[in-house]
Design brief:
This protein has 18 helices and twelve strands. It has helices at 3-12, 27-39, 51-60, 90-96, 109-125, 142-151, 156-165, 219-243, 249-254, 256-277, 281-295, 304-307, 311-314, 322-330, 336-345, 354-366, 368-376, 383-395, and strands spanning 19-23, 43-48, 62-67, 73-78, 80-84, 99-102, 131-135, 166-167, 171-174, 188-190, 195-199, 213-216.
């Protein structure tokens, strides 16, 4: 047995014989959460509506992750399978799972909730033990949101079981997983960096031991640190980059003006995060520096149309542009660089993104001021609303 094999065996011991059900067999599911679960010894069953991907997972039982970084390498993920999330096998899989995770996108959580409710009812009827469901999404409180959605579809008996036995710990996840074309359908490319924080008090029963998962009692600090730094900078790089005719985030960050504006926005959100959550100022400055390095990774071809998609959601009042601006404003801190990002988001175009088209329709039919209010919940006359209008006009030149 090689040293690598020994390491894998040691990793596998804590969860040997356990099954994790992961909703979402896309790049993030396979390249991040599902991979960590497999590397921690779980038998991972992916649930998705993509029949081609599910068939490949069932037939092959393994796939490769390509680390797109200076330390380039390939990792084989094995012991995996798949079920259709709208098929007959999904409810028994929920009833039998030792852990459930998701990476489906925030808007899909509502769609999978009825299925989870049926599975939890089946688990209750079978006398199943504690279960934890972790929604690994770019959404503050995603697991709590999913819990509320499940409760809307569950019977009284299922609700009683859920209240006592099913945990929905919230999580913060961070890994850039760009579109990737490998030799095989299931191949996925990822950056080397990854971070996964989960709130400890949200678990029911024993907290699972998963390599790469960090448990914390103060999750909101890490959720907001990631959403208001990495996601903020990523989105602004995409929106400003597209305005300047740049196709990828890396290309946008090679443009000196764009890089300065992205950095300024992350520094403004950072000042608010340091005051709000007590992060060390130097520590957070280094965190921003690491993110800038990730954005400029030449091995990752991350198109601005992918990163900027769903601008309607991303302009929401608690999202990555307005959320940190509100936090900073309440502390009396500058917000102009953050609001420049919001103004740039209003220009976003993508023929493949329904929300981009919805946004442009709103602007054409309702006008700029009303659209800003509808999306951000900032009333006309609010200084931040006025600043977005001003920056929008400035960006048009």
């Amino acid at each position: 047995m090689t040293q690598a094999d020994q390491t894998q065996t040691q990793r596998s011991q804590p969860n040997s014989g356990k099954m994790a059900l992961h909703f979402g067999a896309g790049n993030i599911g396979r390249g991040f959460i599902g991979a960590l679960l497999s590397q921690s010894g779980y038998r991972v069953v992916f649930a998705d509506i993509n029949e081609q991907v599910i068939t490949a997972l069932r037939e092959q039982g393994e796939y490769d992750i390509h680390i797109l970084d200076q330390n380039a390498r390939t990792e084989r993920i094995s012991g995996v399978s798949g079920v259709l999330s709208n098929g007959p096998e999904i409810v028994p899989a929920i009833a039998e799972a030792d852990l459930i995770t998701t990476a489906v996108g925030p808007n899909v959580l509502r769609i999978i909730a009825p299925t989870l409710a049926r599975g939890i009812e089946a688990r209750a009827a079978a006398g199943g033990g504690p279960l934890n469901i972790v929604a690994c999404e770019n959404k503050v409180g995603a697991s709590s949101f999913l819990r509320d959605e499940v409760l809307g579809h569950i019977s009284e008996e299922g609700r009683a079981y859920l209240e006592q036995n099913v945990g929905f710990p919230n999580a913060s996840v961070d890994r850039i997983v760009p579109p990737f074309e490998g030799e095989h359908l299931l191949d996925v490319g990822v950056e080397e960096f990854h971070e996964w924080y989960v709130e400890g008090p949200g678990f029911r029963g024993e907290i699972p031991q998963i390599e790469g998962m960090k448990v914390t009692d103060d999750l909101m600090a890490y959720v907001q640190r990631k959403l208001y730094t990495l996601n903020t900078g990523h989105a602004i790089a995409a929106y400003l980059g597209q305005l300047r005719g740049l196709d990828t985030v890396a290309a946008a960050m090679q443009d000196e003006q764009t890089a300065q504006e992205v950095r300024a926005a992350m520094q403004q959100s950072g000042a608010a995060l340091v005051q709000t959550h007590g992060f060390g100022a130097q520590e957070h400055a280094e965190y921003i520096g690491r993110i800038e390095q990730r954005f400029t990774n030449p091995y990752i071809h991350d198109e601005v149309t992918r990163v900027g998609r769903e601008p309607v959601r991303k302009l929401g009042p608690k999202e990555r542009l307005i959320g940190p601006a509100q936090m900073a404003k309440e502390l009396g801190l500058p917000v102009d660089a953050l609001l420049r990002g919001a103004a740039a988001a209003l220009y976003f175009r993508s023929a493949e993104d329904p929300q981009a088209q919805e946004l442009q329709t709103m602007l054409a039919q309702d006008g700029l001021a009303a659209t800003i209010t509808a999306l951000t919940e900032l009333p006309e006359g609010d200084p931040m609303h006025a600043e977005i209008v001003r920056q929008y006009a400035e960006l048009s030149h």
